[in-house]
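Listing S7. Sequence submitted for prediction.
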Amino acid sequence: MSQNPEFLWYIPNQADAGHRGEPVDADHNSLETLTEQARALEDHGWDGALIGTGWGRPDTFTLATALTAQTRTFEPLIAIRPGYWRPANFAAAAATLDHLSKGRVRINIVSGQDNLAAYGDSEGDQAQRYGRTKEFMRLVRRLWTEDKVNFAGEHFSVADSTVSPRPVVRGERLHPRLYFGGASEAAEKVAATEADVQLFWGEPLDGVAERIYRLKRLGHVLDRDLPPLQFGLRITTFVRDTTEQAWADAEAKLAQMARGQAGNWHDHRRGHAVGQQRLFDLQARGDVLDDNLYTAPGRFGGGGAGTTWLVGSAEDVAKSLRKYQALGIDHFVLSDTPYLAEIRRQGDTLLPLLRPDSLRIDPSAISPALTAAQ
C-alpha cells in the first residue's frame, strides 16, 4: 500500500450545460469558469483533474493547455484517443506542454467508442482497435525517450523521428504517466503491457481485488518490460456532514434523476464496454454494496463514474477509499456536482482524512479473501 496516494478531480468540458446535476449555466465551459475550478483544486489540496474526451466536446488538449497556463501546480490528466491523434503529432504536443509546465502533464489513453467518422477515423473489430492502441502507446513512449526512432507497425510508422523538446525527467518519471481503462480481455492485455496506471470504475472491493490480481498475473505472463503497473479508481463521492444527511440527499437526488430532473447523465450508453456493463450488472446484487457503494444511480444515469456512488460523511467515504487503497489503489479520480462547491467541500473535509499521516488501515481488516487476492 503506497503512502503517497494521488487525488485528482474531474473537470467537465461539456458542450451542453447541466452535466450530472451541475446547475445549468450558459458559461459552464468558459475559460473563466473552468479556470476557477482548476484554481480551486490547487487551493483545496487536489493534485489535478481528469479532462474527458469525445467528439462534440471542446477539444480536450486545447482546454488542458489553457488551464495549465492559468495555474501553478494543477496537473491535467488529458484524455486522448489514438486515431484522433497520430503518435508523433501527439508525442510532440504532449512533450511541449510538459516542458512548458515543468512536468505537470498526465495522459489518459481512451479506446472506447466515439463518432470516428466525424474526424476521418475508422476502426475494425475489437482486436484491431486494441492492437492500434497498443502500438500507439508503445510508439509514443519511444518517441518521448529515444532519438531517431524508426518504427513500421501495422497501424503507424515513423522514420528518423526525434521529439524536441523532451518531457521533463524527474526521479523515476521519464515522461508523462500513461493512464488506461478497459475491462475486456483485449483491453487488459494492453494495460498489462503498456500502461503506467490502470483505472477502474467504482466496483465493489471484491471486483477490484480480482481485477488487480488478474492484471498483475497477466503482466507476468506477457513479460511486461515496464515498471510495475499501478492502479486507480474513478468514482463519484457523495459527501455530506453526517451519514444520515448524505443518504437523505443521495436518495433525493436519485428521485430527481428518476423524474429526469437532475441534468444530463447519459454520457455512457449501455453495452458500449465490458467495464460499463460490469457496473450495470451490480444492481442485481443490491442497491448498497460493501459499506456504502450505492448502485441504484445506474438505473437512471448514463454510466461511467456516475453509475455508482460512495455515499456518507467524509469519515465514511474516507474509510471506504482507504480499503481500496489497501488493495493497491494509489490513484483516485473523484467527483460530484456542483463541481466547484464539491471541489471545496471534499478538498477541505475528505482529503485531510486520506493524506499519508491518516492512512492507517490494516489490509487484513478488509477481509481475508480480498487480502489473499492481492
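Caption to Listing S7: primary sequence and predicted C-alpha cells for the chain studied. The mean pLDDT is 90. Residues 209 and 374 are 6 Å apart (CA to CA).
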